[in-house]
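Usage

Read records sequentially. Each one opens with the input sequence:
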Amino acid sequence: MTGLTPDCFKLHTESDCGPSEPMSAPAILPAGWKRLDAFSYKYRDGLAVIVTQGLERDGKTWVHLSVSHRGRLPTWEELKAVKEIFLGTDSVALQVLPPRAEWVNVNPNVMHLFECLDGRPVPDFRRQGTL
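and closes with the structure output:
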């Protein structure tokens, strides 16, 4: 997918939960991307990203990427590219599969990625190589 190359920096913002750490956002959007407003971005092929950040109940600040595509789920390649554009190549992004009782599915074509800004939330799972 051309135009989805990482070019990140930290943008200072304030979430609905009050002051927070810097939120990731691209300094210059790669070719084909358009910023729609303070939190929303769209790629020329219909891929859309909403970036939010807030202090969660665990006391940590999390960035949430809502990634969607019209008519289908985003692909693995699109998720990887969005993660690198909006969170950087060295960040740990999580995709959560919660218990069924906690499911929220407003749009069937949306995937979510989360980054904890207050330290690594999971151990390094590599064993004799990389994942």
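Summary fields computed downstream for this record:
- The radius of gyration is 15 Å.
- Residues 76-87 form the longest helix (12 residues).
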